[in-house]
Write a structure and sequence with these properties.
isomerase; 304 residues; Rossmann fold; EC 5.3.1.6; disordered N terminus; seven-stranded mixed sheet; Ribose5P_isomerase_type_A; binds ribulose-5-phosphate; ribose-5-phosphate isomerase activity; Alpha-Beta Plaits; alpha/beta; 15 strands; 8 helices; globular; NagB/RpiA_transferase-like
């Protein structure tokens, strides 16, 4: 059954991500555990410098992604978010100075199309038959080890579409997510967006609520105004005509893959923000360096 959740509990759930102390089971280990712990404490005190540090970590991740994976002649899926915007801007600059040529971008949403247009990257639409050599994106969170990611936590206004984003990312021969280390861990928390048929959204929401009973709350996303279990006065309707439910996990998620599988089996669920792609690479921005982890289990550290 849907329960009337207070707004305060939504705020608490969405801000409950505790800072991790290390970014991988393997070598992210990168000797940085104690300094990361020190850094986590400092970050709690100085939020402004934390976002500056994150921005600088993401900038390194964005430059590394373009420098390492982009080659002339590629068709590239362009994701959205802070790091993706940085990568798009840098890619445009590199095209202008002649570091690459004949690159075509396929934006996953309006925001990345607009960044790419500003950067002067030639663009194309995504078609079912599009051959995409490489794609990059931000992730809201990424599961340590499996590299399963969640996208689409931000509000889906305008023309954004989780379906289109996932199609482009899944179609790419190679996919990179650029993230900061606090988004890469096991026992993830926070929310997962789920697209549902709007006609029977309440039944679907109740089924999802029953599935994760005690571990999650299910809210319908609002287009404007206050969030609420029912989506407020103006529930969000995507461009495809679906509602968005946010499953707000209040207990750590044991396996994102299992959550995705369970959601796929529920009537009325059209898609969700969990993406599990092989091969996939996480370029994780750290303070003063990068950690690169791929889905074959290889990891390396740069610049620490
Ligand atoms: O859907 C997404 C990427 O496709 C993410 O929700 C989002 O863009 C993350 O952005 P940021 O890194 O700026 O928080």
């Amino acid at each position: 059954m849907m329960r009337p959740f207070a707004l305060a509990s939504m705020a608490a759930a969405s801000s409950s991500s505790s800072p991790p102390l290390a970014c991988s089971s393997t070598s992210l280990h990168c000797s940085a555990t104690s300094s990361n712990r020190r850094r986590s404490t400092q970050c709690l005190r100085i939020t402004a410098s934390s976002s500056l540090a994150d921005a600088s970590a993401l900038l390194q991740a964005a430059h590394h992604t373009v420098d390492t994976y982009v080659k002339s002649g590629m068709v590239i899926g362009l994701g959205s978010g802070q790091a993706s915007a940085m990568a798009i801007e840098y890619l445009g600059r590199q095209l202008r100075v002649g570091a690459f040529r004949d690159v075509v971008g396929i934006p996953t949403c309006v925001a990345s199309a607009s960044e790419a247009a500003k950067a002067g990257i030639p663009l194309d639409y995504y078609h079912d038959s599009s051959q995409i050599d490489f794609a990059f994106d931000d992730a809201d969170i990424m599961e340590e080890g499996t590299l399963t990611a969640v996208i689409g936590r931000q509000s889906l206004q305008g023309d954004e579409s989780i379906i289109q984003q996932k199609c482009i990312l899944n179609a790419a021969d190679k996919l990179v997510f650029m993230i900061t280390k606090n988004k890469y861990r096991g026992g993830l928390d926070g929310s997962i967006p789920v697209l549902v048929q709007s006609l029977n959204w309440l039944e679907t929401a109740e089924e999802i609520d029953d599935l994760f009973l005690g571990d999650a709350e299910v809210w319908r996303r609002a287009a404007i105004g206050q969030a609420g279990p029912m989506g407020g006065d103006f529930p969000l309707v995507t461009k495809e005509g679906y509602n968005v439910l946010d499953i707000i996990f209040t207990s750590p998620i044991q396996s994102l893959g299992e959550v995705a599988k369970s959601l796929d089996n529920i009537d009325g669920v059209v898609d969700h923000g969990v993406i599990s792609k092989f091969p996939c690479t996480a370029v994780i921005g750290l303070e003063g360096g990068l950690c690169i982890v791929d889905s074959q289990g290889k990891s390396s550290v740069e610049g620490l």
